[in-house]
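Quick illustration, no need to memorize.
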Amino acid sequence: MEPMEQHPHAALLSLASEILQEFGLLRLAVYGNSMVPTIFPGDIVTVVRADAGDMRRGDVILYSRGNRFFVHRVVCETGVPGGMERVTRGDALRENDPPVSATELLGKVTVIQRGEKQIVLPGSRSISSRLAAWCVQRSDIVLALFLRWHSLRRRIDTRGAVSTSAVQSPEGSW
């Protein structure tokens, strides 16, 4: 009998999960588009360990499924035998994810590092933030414009434009 081949990300997933459990804090880079306009590719998120009971509608959470990490927003809770599950969705996605079980939950995103800016996630989103996400969900062109604008802004920042470290709300970041 041959040994099962391990997924290449399984070791990283395991290590990151252990760090979060042991120290209660993890910083990792995000590369997908699913959370635009809240989180852009290349942003670094700070995740704090949190129990399922600490996660509410509107929170951005980290969970693992199928040897992958997901950073998505909780859109609702569903009751299942033995507890509650969280239903999540990326801000740029039209469809909800399958419910996330308590064993898949890893923590809650509290801060987004974008270049030299630190964006502290508030307990609730503003109307402008919700409107931007609604537009991105319904139009690939709007998503492409946000990504293009973000890329241009990063190039300007790295070419020596005056940049100062600041704490912002997500509404001021997009």
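The first strand starts at residue 25 and ends at 29.
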